[in-house]
Design a protein that fits this description.
FAD-dep_Monooxygenase_BioMet, monooxygenase activity, 23% strand, D-Amino Acid Oxidase, Chain A, domain 2, FAD/NAD-bd_sf, five-stranded parallel beta sheet, globular, seven-stranded mixed beta sheet, oxidoreductase
């Protein structure tokens, strides 16, 4: 069976490695021209994401990605008063893993290197133009005039997935949230933080964590009008940093200190919510990761869900001879979980948009909202993948 995976990011590389573990060959195709540093500042792999890597035998590769363990959150209002907290000190004993903070580019690099070491072919500089299913396969045409025939195609090509657009032309587009995310890191004279620190400012939301005199920071900037695709990439990082400093000039310390010590922002990215899709697959085409269910960065679950998807889909293809039955089983296992986390992320994101009345109401109700969210967090972190489980479709009956 020839499997063509479109996208060699976190989701695509994780899927290639999961399929390799299952004894299934595949080829990855990516739009970028060559193995390059991925975008984004930093991310957190949640306990469930760490356990998903563990199920694939890949947890040890995180040593090469750097990063550090950290669990828990503390929330502060614009005056610097702590208004809520989520404990995470017992995550290892409760969930079997702690979250790991790391630079997104490093996670991408180690996954890509692992895929190449496993002799998984990756072809670069190819953009999907069309996807056409036939009776016995799928034809993928590329914008350079070339095409490939495969038995199945997996779209792991992100929130703006060309596979999704080509296969489901009427599928909803991502919806702009009114927020642009910006972040980076800076050398600071601050002690390590035991939990990630979240500040609801009057004009912007700011979050950070400190490890070994380095502050990993991000800020959510309100922007009413959605930027054009690629528009933000043309703005110099130092211009973004100037804007971020201005929006946070009334913020409490150490927010201002961190921004004063920052050399530049790594970049800026508009945030989108992905409406739930009716389905993620046809007979021979299937979506994983952000292509199927892009979740808000507020959840801290994007990369973790992508690795989970990769492991589960590989198991389903391993245990079901017919691709459609494998996809149906994958959908049964994954869709409700992902959409629940998508909705939770939307609720969190709505609370980051600053306004005087909104800030007052948020400060008053955040602790109750987080209390309700504890059960959701427990469900997210407790998720366990058993690689030896039988994922055959008949086991559902």
């Amino acid at each position: 069976m020839k499997i063509l995976v479109i996208g060699a990011g976190i989701a695509g590389c994780a899927l290639g490695l999961a399929l390799s573990k299952a004894g299934i060959a595949c080829k990855l195709v990516d739009l970028k021209p060559a193995p390059t540093t991925a975008g984004g500042a930093f991310l957190t792999l949640a306990p469930n994401g760490i356990k998903a890597l563990r199920s694939l035998g890949l947890e040890s590769m995180l040593e090469g990605a750097g990063g550090f363990e950290q669990s828990g959150l503390e929330f502060f209002n614009a005056n610097g008063r702590k208004i809520a907290a989520i404990k995470g000190e017992n995550d290892l004993s409760v969930y079997g893993a702690c979250g790991v903070v790391m630079r997104r580019a490093r996670l991408q690099e180690v996954l890509e290197a692992a895929a190449l070491k496993a002799e998984i072919p990756i072809e670069y500089g190819r953009q999907v133009k069309s996807v056409s299913e036939t009776g016995d396969g799928v034809k993928v045409a590329f914008d350079d005039g070339s095409s490939e025939q495969a038995d199945i195609v997996i779209g792991a090509d992100g929130i703006w997935s060309q596979v999704r657009r080509a296969t489901w032309p009427q599928a909803p587009n991502p919806l702009y949230t009114g927020i642009v995310d910006c972040g980076g890191w800076a050398k600071v004279d601050l002690p390590d933080t035991t939990r990630q620190q979240m500040h609801f400012g009057n004009r912007a939301f700011f979050g950070y964590t400190v490890k070994d005199k380095t502050a990993y920071w991000f800020t959510n900037i309100p922007e009413a009008i959605a930027p054009e695709r690629g528009e933000l990439e043309k703005i110099a990082p130092e211009v973004w940093l100037t804007k971020v400093r201005e929006l946070n000039r009334e913020a409490v310390e150490p927010v201002r200190h961190i921004l004063a010590m920052a050399d530049s922002a790594i970049g800026a990215w508009p945030l989108y919510n992905m409406p739930p899709l009716p389905t993620w697959h046809t007979r021979r085409v299937c979506l994983i990761g952000d292509a199927a269910h892009a979740v808000s960065p507020s959840t801290g679950q994007g990369a973790s869900l992508a690795v989970e998807d990769a492991a589960v889909l590989a198991m389903c293809l391993r245990d079901n001879a017919e691709p459609q039955r494998a996809f149906e089983r994958y959908l049964d296992v994954r869709k409700a979980r992902a959409e629940s986390i998508m909705e939770f992320g939307r609720q969190i994101g709505d609370r980051k948009v600053a306004s005087t009345m909104g800030s007052w109401f948020r400060d008053l109700t955040l602790v109750f909202f987080l209390r309700m969210g504890r059960s959701a967090t427990k469900e997210q972190y407790s998720y366990q993948i058993d690689w030896n489980a039988n994922m055959a479709q008949e086991h559902l009956q």
